[in-house]
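Annotators were shown the component list below and the corresponding predicted structure, then asked to write short factual statements about the assembly.
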Amino acid sequence: MKLPNKQCTTETAIAKIRDGDTIMVGGFGVPGTPMTLIHALVAHGARDLTLVKNDANEPGLGIDHLLRSGQVRRLITTHLGLNAYAIELMNTAKLEVEFNAQGILAERIRAGGSGLAGILTDIGIGTELAEGKQEIEFEGKRQIIEAALRADVALIHAERADVFGNLEFAATAQNFNPLMAMAADCVIAETVNLLPVGGLNPNNVQTAGVFIDHVTELTALTKEYAVVKR
Amino acid sequence: MSNARERLLARAARDVQPGMVVNLGIGLPTKIVDHLSEDLCVCLHTENGMIGIGPSPSPEQADRNLIDAGGAYVSTVPGSAFFDSATSFAMVRSGRLDLTMLGAFEVGSNGDLANWKIPGKFSPGVGGGIELAQKARRVVVLTTHTDRAGNPKLKTKCSLPLTAPNCVARIYTDLAVVDVGPKGFELVELARGVTANEAVEATGAPLILPHGELGVF
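Structure shown to annotators:
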């Protein structure tokens, strides 16, 4: 039996994105952010997007390009501290921002990717993050119901992949990538190290290719992927 | 402050005990790393998915895939491990963190912590702060005793949106070490050259003085 080949060009994969889509974007800071797929989305021009990303990168990097091109209506995130432009957009009501506790964002995505409707947690009780959320008493304790999160498309950066879509991640570039890779209707993974089927040791696969729809090969890593000089 | 800041960092670092799993928050607390002895058996966690942080690398040694939750480049130690964001916070929420050291805008005398939002001025998001403050076994704060305008950051009650209620056990400042006890703030130690009266005046809530002589750091 043979596993299918899902390799395609970045443009072909990104062409699936529609106006109004919800897009999950992997990465925490630079590590794991799919810089090339993001540039392709800027070139594609889909608008009115909802992005789900841990942070807003830094000015001139990652999803900052999508904020500057005016393609993003709403951002579901945890922290914007390194991007003053994103904070300015939020403060001037040009960008709708929904803050989540970081691990709860991760769990909402994991639930979405696992066929669950939501999770119960006591995180945020007594703070304004709990406002407007449904609370229940469960096994004698107050819990907030946090809804599962899914997206139309997820953009993933992998350190290494095979053309079936099996993925490996590097160091702290793992972060939200394996979770988001399970939680979207169409999952696009980029990598600079693309191997034939069977090129990865099955023991080292961190995301199974069954979750992935398209794999695109980067000919090189642009300077956006490099160490940031601050 | 810089001299006082170094002494505050060194004092707080002394409370990192062998065997602990520790998370150092963004800002002042991450500077603790370089005050810990290389011989100390301690496991440093960062929210973006790593346990076993080593000393800060030089800019030339920085690895593009290896950062802490504040975006600073970090190094590994023998035995370091990487994991995804869900696993990282599973460690936090399930009680694997013995200690977290966080920054603060305000601490209430009941242990309430406000460190993520100044309405209308500063609201970059809460990141992992709520989970750290709510679930680490011990939560301590590193901060200046007063803000830039001289207003106390240790108050009877926080006026800013809370990160978590009733969570702070100890506060290390440029003036003093203060515990949050059942009756409020308790003075534990004073910074060199600071009098108990100065600490009392810089605190926006009653400060309980101990019997006997105060330690100095």
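Statements collected:
1. Residues 102-113 of chain A form the longest helix (12 residues).
2. Residues 10-117+149-219 of chain A form a domain with the Glutaconate Coenzyme A-transferase fold (CATH 3.40.1080.10).
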